[in-house]
Amino acid sequence: MINHESNVIEYTYTDQHAVPDDVSEPLKPDYAINQLLAQFTGGIDPVAYSLAFTDWFIHLLLSLGKQQALADLTLTNASTLNKNLEDAADDNRLSGPEWQAWPYAVYRQNYLAMRQWWQLATRDVQGVEKHHTDMVNFSVRQWLEALSPANYLTTNPNVIHKTLESAGANLVKGVDNLIEDIQQQYFREAEPKREETYRVGENIAVTPGQVVFKNNLLELIQYSPATEEVCAEPVLVVPAWIMKYYILDLSEHNSLVRYLVQQGHTVFMISWKNPQHEDHNVSLIDYLKQGLGEAIEAVQQRVPGEQINGVGYCLGGTLLTMAAAWLAREKRNPFCALTLLAAQTDFSDAGDLRLFIDESQLSMLEAVMAKNGFLPKESMAGTFTLLRANYLLWSRWVKEYLLGERQHPNDLLTWNKDATRMPARMHAEYLRQCYLHNSLASGQFMVDNRPIALADIQVPLFVVGTAKDHVAPWQSVYKINLLIDKDITFLLTNGGHNAGIISEPGHAHRVYQMATRKEDGAYLPPQAWLDEVPLQEGSWWPAWQQWLASQSSRKVSARTVEAVKPLPAAPGDYVLAP
């Protein structure tokens, strides 16, 4: 319920650590304090990071061996300053020949030496809790990336050259770009000066189809066939509600939906509603039952008598495995196979996102969400920016504000800016259950007061990881091999969480590795798998499509899709809502 006097939304969690049903008066000042702190810290809890740095610093003071190693490194770097330090593999902005000339070579060497020193100082300090070590290392890494000489006018040779060449016009344009972006960010009424090239329903998300089912959580789209015959078993795609679905239906040349339709599949797609404040008490179980559960029933009604090829992307893949385990427990088996795209089921090694998740930080996050009933889309976007600050923040800073060059618009960038919100209750439950307690992997995730077990899933799986994934590290995705004892085809492709999945045939520089572990096959650790499985050139989509086709029992006549009034045609209404 909403308390209009205090502007605090009171919501209920099922987790034992969460806020009680009625937020008492003593709790409201705590919420207010955390909300105030969050405005200055970007939602990052200063208490959690203070504890982490205190743990690290005290143990560093007690580690004489580490101190000696740091002193030795300082002397070594001082005596070899003019030698080349090749430690810029993750920042290719420092790798060009212009960085070898004086004085830029000195800036570069000093920076790399400083980064090397801090990496040694923040890692492997005896006695420091691992979570604290990772938090300190991550924070120092953000600070070091901000100090890179590539980020500043006077220390970046490319910026200086452009400034001299254009008589400073690039700086004037950069200031203009900065003012425009500030107006867009903080004064929403300001209109952008540049024309938007991509628009949903006009030149992206245009695969023909029809919304055939709708409830207060989702719209279900069925796409029109492109072949005379199709595989008997339909494909149901479950995207994450942390993103809008049309990343899988971008332009005509890189639409995964269009590709599947053209290969002879009946494709259904879930388009999740972007939650508003009235959706604050929507739970993770609601997404499971009223969301995916009702979508499955709608597909079965439209394609009676056939099982479903389930496809889940990111959080949608996690939800898909929950649904498969839950329905298997209930002796309902709607799936003939499952595909998981960059989706985690075991969150014990979930990468840098875990650095933002502990009891202290979740308490602040719950306070932030209590104000509006959802996690603002800016908070989610900010978190992902921090995970790839070098690429998403500092490279953009240099390109747009120092060089004065706007990024060329593309469909993926347009989608990336179209952020979504998270319902307060669901988001807190998801973070606690999956990231904090790892309940799904440990068999403690409760549905109807009974745990579900991923081991109950009895269908073959196709699992895709991406090599540069900062959201769902491929080693974490790979852990499904320890949880489900069925045939699992694991595929690792190059690229990141989004670009690695959108890897259409003909896309340059694409490679992948793929191998199948049979139900009775031995487990192969991730690094051994990486070393043993051969590399293949090209897009992974055709290999996956062949696997999908192999899970089909037969071909049938294509299923036409007629208008379902009053429901809209694809892409539907939910995807257009801000």
From TrEMBL:
Residues of the Poly-beta-hydroxybutyrate polymerase N-terminal domain: 30-63, 91-260
- InterPro entries linked: AB_hydrolase_fold, PHA/PHB_synthase, PhaC_N, PHBC_N
One Pfam family, please name it: PhaC_N
Q: What is the top-level taxon of the source organism?
A: Bacteria
Q: Which of UniProt's keywords are assigned here?
A: Acyltransferase, Transferase
Do you know which SUPFAM superfamilies this protein is assigned to?
Answer: alpha/beta-Hydrolases (SSF53474)
Q: Which Gene3D superfamilies does the protein's record reference?
A: alpha/beta hydrolase
How is this protein named in the record?
Answer: PHA/PHB synthase family protein
